[in-house]
């Protein structure tokens, strides 16, 4: 019966390899990488969009602020020339006010052109990211098709193994199966090992003592002293 459990173990090992192969495949790794890049780009793009919107909002308020300053400047100028200024002190005060307002206006103008430049730069960067995203999206889709194809093929192989396992399990007594289930996570998923004619353990590839080989071939329950696997002799 150990021979059948050993065959079951072989199929389970193959199953594990099949699943690992999928995870380790280049296409799968690349797919994950492209997906991660895409997510990262999307975040950067959204961040830029937010910054552009904030600049838009600030720039939108500039014309009104400038108009207000210009209006104040003209009012001061008008006061100087309409004869309402009565002395030199008031004239100086009004001129100082005009100078301060004009400076403020210039500050606002240079800030405006700074913001406009910044917005253009951000729009350019966002455009580049969008192009890259479109490219990555295409790559993602073509990789996805390849991975899906691989998964479909693997699924077929796994289903076939599942069928083989069912057939084997049906032929193994319940208590033996229960024992196997209870130990199958030991020894890296391979708790049963076969001894060949040269007395070599299939689990750890060492030679067992002659007494172990003899007892095993007589049908006694034995384990490999080196790796701890339960042994049977190849027929
Ligand atoms: Zn061994």
Question: What does this protein look like?
Answer:
77% of the residues lie in helices and 3% in strands. Helix 1 (2-24) packs antiparallel against helix 3 (88-171). The chain has two domains: 2-173, Helix Hairpins (Orthogonal Bundle), CATH 1.10.287; 185-233, no CATH class. A two-stranded parallel ribbon has the order 1-2. By secondary structure, the protein is mainly alpha-helical. It has helices spanning 2-24, 26-81, 88-171, 174-183, 210-217; strands at residues 192-195, 230-233. It contains five helices and two strands; from the N terminus they run ααααβαβ. Strand 1 (192-195), helix 5 (210-217) and strand 2 (230-233) form a beta-alpha-beta unit. The mean pLDDT is 94. The protein is rod-shaped, with a radius of gyration of 41 Å. The structure holds zinc ion (ZN). The site of zinc ion has 9 residues, from loops.
Give the SSE map.
Elements: H1 2-24, H2 26-81, H3 88-171, H4 174-183, E1 192-195, H5 210-217, E2 230-233
Parallel strand pairs: 1-2
Helix pairs in contact: 1-3, 2-3
Task: Summarize this structure as a short list of keywords or feature phrases.
5 helices; 235 residues; 2 domains; rod-shaped; binds zinc ion; 77% helix; mainly alpha; two-stranded parallel ribbon; single chain
């Amino acid at each position: 019966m150990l021979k059948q459990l050993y065959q079951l173990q072989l199929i389970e090992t193959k199953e594990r390899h099949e699943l690992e192969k999928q995870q380790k495949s280049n296409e799968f790794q690349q797919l994950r990488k492209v997906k991660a890049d895409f997510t990262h780009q999307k975040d950067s793009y959204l961040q830029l969009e937010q910054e552009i919107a904030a600049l838009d909002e600030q720039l939108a308020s500039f014309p009104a602020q400038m108009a207000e300053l210009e209006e104040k400047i003209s009012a001061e100028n008008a006061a100087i020339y309409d004869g309402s200024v009565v002395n030199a002190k008031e004239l100086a005060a009004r001129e100082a006010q005009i100078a301060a307002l004009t400076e403020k206006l210039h500050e606002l103008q240079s800030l405006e052109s700074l913001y406009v430049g910044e917005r253009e730069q951000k729009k350019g960067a966002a455009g580049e990211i969008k192009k890259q995203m479109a490219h990555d999206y295409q790559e993602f889709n073509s990789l996805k098709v390849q991975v899906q194809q691989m998964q479909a093929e693997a699924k077929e192989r796994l289903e076939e193994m599942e069928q083989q396992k069912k057939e084997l399990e049906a032929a193994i007594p319940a208590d033996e199966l229960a024992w196997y289930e209870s130990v199958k996570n030991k020894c890296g998923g391979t708790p049963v090992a076969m001894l060949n004619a040269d007395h070599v353990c299939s689990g750890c590839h060492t030679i067992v003592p002659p007494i172990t080989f003899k007892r095993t071939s007589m049908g006694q329950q034995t384990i490999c002293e080196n790796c701890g696997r339960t042994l049977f002799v190849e027929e």
